[in-house]
Design brief:
alpha/beta; Rossmann fold; 5-stranded parallel β-sheet; 2 domains; Arc Repressor Mutant, subunit A; about 220 residues
């Protein structure tokens, strides 16, 4: 992807410089912004081929900036969100507004390059602010079990894809249901391991599974 312009927006100088070095080594042209203010100025004078946008920034958060670009017709380039505190709600909201991907910090080299490649393959057409957005399933990398689980992350991402033409609540519920179904399968129905990997209390996990209609094996779920 030689000659592609990527805008990196992050208030942490170390992250900006690291991402810039990696992307430039891969042949991309990189512009850096330390926050929403600089990102707005860059967007006024050019349209990047891709934006890597941090969510938590001190001046204006990334979700607000993404919504601003969408409302004023400036969201004519794919945007991949970044966050060290990713949640399902935040990811779903970003995708609903128009982001094409979500990378959770710390971002590995493979995830960064895969995310950039995938983002560049999903360009947004020029549109008026009122125009409808094309709907397509988009993979989200949010709160998945870590490398120690031995699970193939690529398989997980594919199975957790959620269509974006749903209301926020339905999209979130669908994502959570798929996530827990996948997690139960990976742990072979071991609720203790599933709760540990999900980072929730065992009792809360049972209640969540009941709420989402996720069953383990042939027996109905029961709290222990």
């Amino acid at each position: 992807m030689m000659g592609k312009d990527i805008l990196v927006v992050d208030d942490e100088i170390g992250i900006r410089e690291l991402l810039s070095e990696i992307l430039m080594d891969e042949g991309y042209d990189v512009t850096l912004a330390d926050g929403a203010g600089q990102a707005r100025l860059v967007r006024e004078r050019m349209r990047p081929d891709l934006v890597l946008l941090d969510i938590w920034m001190p001046d204006t958060d990334g979700i607000t900036l993404l919504r601003e670009w969408d409302s004023n017709g400036s969201l004519t380039m794919p945007v991949v969100m970044m966050s060290g505190h990713g949640t399902i709600d935040t990811a779903v909201e970003a995708m609903r507004i128009g982001a094409v991907g979500f990378l959770e910090k710390p971002i590995s080299l493979r995830k960064l390059l895969d995310g950039v490649t995938a983002g560049l393959q999903h360009p947004l057409p020029k549109k008026s602010p009122a125009a409808a957005r094309p709907v397509a399933p988009v993979p989200m990398e949010v709160d998945l079990p870590g490398p120690e689980s031995g699970v193939d992350a690529d398989d997980a991402i594919e199975c957790l894809s959620v269509p974006l033409n749903l209301p926020l609540r339905e999209a979130r519920d669908l994502f959570e249901r798929r996530y827990f179904e996948w997690l139960i399968a990976q742990t072979e129905g071991n609720m203790t391991r599933a709760a540990e990997q999900a980072g929730v209390e065992r009792t809360h996990l049972y209640r969540k599974l009941k709420q989402l209609g996720v069953n383990v094996g042939k027996k109905p779920l029961q709290e222990e």
